């Protein structure tokens, strides 16, 4: 996956979950200790010239904050929460064929029309990572038409625009939502749904869940453009990491490229890295492609 990213003419920052990430998701305790692959993955990413950063909390929230501030153009993740956190563009999958979700298109599409507040309300209605088991509405697909109609309600956006005094505000907001179900005063839904009030939990929406989406922990000092810019490919160290972690040859300390080449490592790397090197050079992306090499400069 990292090699695939290197073959894309772009600047890449890889962000990892931080210490303030939630300890419980969907009622299950989450280990806060980083997986054992985290450090080797960071080493590979840095060797390829990618910026590496530890988030304050969840990586998706940190990426969404960078997207909102214009530091990055898109987020690659399989977690749709990135859109709820406020990311402007989300790429699903990192294969040759990707699906691009744009916050503007989601809001402007005639059959969707979901603002950031609408996305938040959908997450609250259908349940997400931050809900305790049984803390959502248990909306099934037969009721999704109702959910979609509710999301068009003008009050949906206000959940994301009222951070101060949120607990008191939500009490009134929830009452208003119940009034919409019973009376449909603005005619947004088209008919009344008083029976759905029986499905509304007493604490809906949970303030802690709303805050987890609208005010997630993010770094006090956001990543800058300069941090992502002008990274270099360290070919020798990359060869060493491949030899060490993938057992491509016997354990050796980093040495000249010619040594790695004689052991076959460079031959194996060519399918993964050479296309990216050629693309970077041919397209002359915004940073110069340089390879650390004791013998022959590229």
Describe this structure in words.
This protein has helices spanning about 1-5, 40-45, 60-70, 80-85, 105-110, 115-125, 145-150, 165-185, 205-215, 225-230, 235-245, 255-260, 265-270, 275-285; strands at about 15, 25, 30, 50-55, 75, 90, 100. Residues about 140-145 and about 290-298 have low confidence and may be disordered. Helix 2 packs antiparallel against helix 11. The protein has a domain at about 115-215. The longest helix is centred in the middle third of the chain and has 18 residues, at about 165-185. It is about 40% helix and about 5% strand. It is elongated.
**Residue fraction in strands:** 5-15%
Give the beta-strand count.
7
The number of helices is: 14
Overall morphology:
elongated
Q: End-to-end span in angstroms?
A: 24 Å
String of helices and strands: HEEEHEHEHEEHHHHHHHHHH
Give Rg in angstroms: 24 Å
Binned, the helix content reads: 25-40%
Strand order, sheet with most strands: 5-6-7
How would a textbook summarize the main sheet? 3 strands, mixed
Q: Low-confidence segments, ≥5 residues, pLDDT <50?
A: 140-145, 288-298
Structural class: mainly alpha
Mean pLDDT over the full residue set: 75
InterPro entries: PIN-like_dom_sf, XPG-I_dom, XPG/Rad2
Organism: Suillus subaureus
Protein name: PIN domain-like protein
Domain XPG-I: 46-114
């Amino acid at each position: 996956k990292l090699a695939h990213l290197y073959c894309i003419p772009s600047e890449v920052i890889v962000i990892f979950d931080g210490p303030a990430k939630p300890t419980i998701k969907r009622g299950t305790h989450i280990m806060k200790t980083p997986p054992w692959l985290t450090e080797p993955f960071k080493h590979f990413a840095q060797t390829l010239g990618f910026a590496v950063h530890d988030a304050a909390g969840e990586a998706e929230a940190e990426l969404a904050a960078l997207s909102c501030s214009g530091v990055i153009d898109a987020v690659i993740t399989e977690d749709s929460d990135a859109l709820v956190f406020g990311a402007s563009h989300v790429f699903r999958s990192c294969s040759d064929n990707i699906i691009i979700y744009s916050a503007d298109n989601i809001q402007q599409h005639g059959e969707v029309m979901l603002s950031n507040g609408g996305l938040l309300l959908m997450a609250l209605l259908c349940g997400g990572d931050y809900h305790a088991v049984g803390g959502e509405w248990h909306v099934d697909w037969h009721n999704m038409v109702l959910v979609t109609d509710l999301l068009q309600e003008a009050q949906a956006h206000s959940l994301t625009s009222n951070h101060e005094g949120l607990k008191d505000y939500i009490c009134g907001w929830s009452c208003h939502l119940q009034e919409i179900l019973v009376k449909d005063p603005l005619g947004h839904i088209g008919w009344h749904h008083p029976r759905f009030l029986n499905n509304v939990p007493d604490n809906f929406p949970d303030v802690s869940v709303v805050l987890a989406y609208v005010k997630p922990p993010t770094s006090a000092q956001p990543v800058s453009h300069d941090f992502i810019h002008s990274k270099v490919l360290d070919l020798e160290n990359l060869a060493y990491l491949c030899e060490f972690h993938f057992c491509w040859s016997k354990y050796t300390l980093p040495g000249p490229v010619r040594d790695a080449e004689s052991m076959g490592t460079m031959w194996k790397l060519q399918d993964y890295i050479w296309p990216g090197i050629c693309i970077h050079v041919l397209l002359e992306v915004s940073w110069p492609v340089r390879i650390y090499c004791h013998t022959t400069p590229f």
